[in-house]
Amino acid sequence: EVCASFSTPLLVIHGDADKCTSPTVSRAWFEGVSSATKKYVSIPNGYHVLTEGSMLPKLAAEVTAVLAGGR
């Protein structure tokens, strides 16, 4: 119910190798959000902490694109 009423812009970035939080559950929650402006990004081989190491450039690029008005 909560995600169905979620209407603000949304960006979800999830590592597909995350062992702490299920990417499948994350994607299902994302699909249930009713926001018209939303983007889901799966980071290949990304774990739970995407702000470290080789994942950071991809993370930064996705966040920058959304903030610049891209989808």
H/I helix tally: 2
Round the mean pLDDT to the nearest integer and report it. Answer: 87
Q: Beta fraction of the residues?
A: 15-25%
Major β-sheet, in short?
A: 2 strands, parallel
In short:
The protein is of the alpha+beta class and 71 residues long. Helix content is 31%, strand content 17%. It contains two helices and two strands; from the N terminus they run E-H-E-H.
Written description of the protein model:
- With 71 residues, the protein is α+β, with helices and mostly antiparallel strands.
- The protein has two helices and two strands; from the N terminus they run βαβα.
- The chain has a two-stranded parallel sheet with strand order 1-2.
- The protein is flat, with a radius of gyration of 13 Å.
Topology:
Elements: E1 10-15, H1 23-32, E2 38-43, H2 56-67
Parallel strand pairs: 1-2
Task: Fill in the keyword field for this structure.
about 70 residues; alpha+beta; 2 helices; 2 strands; about 15% strand; flat
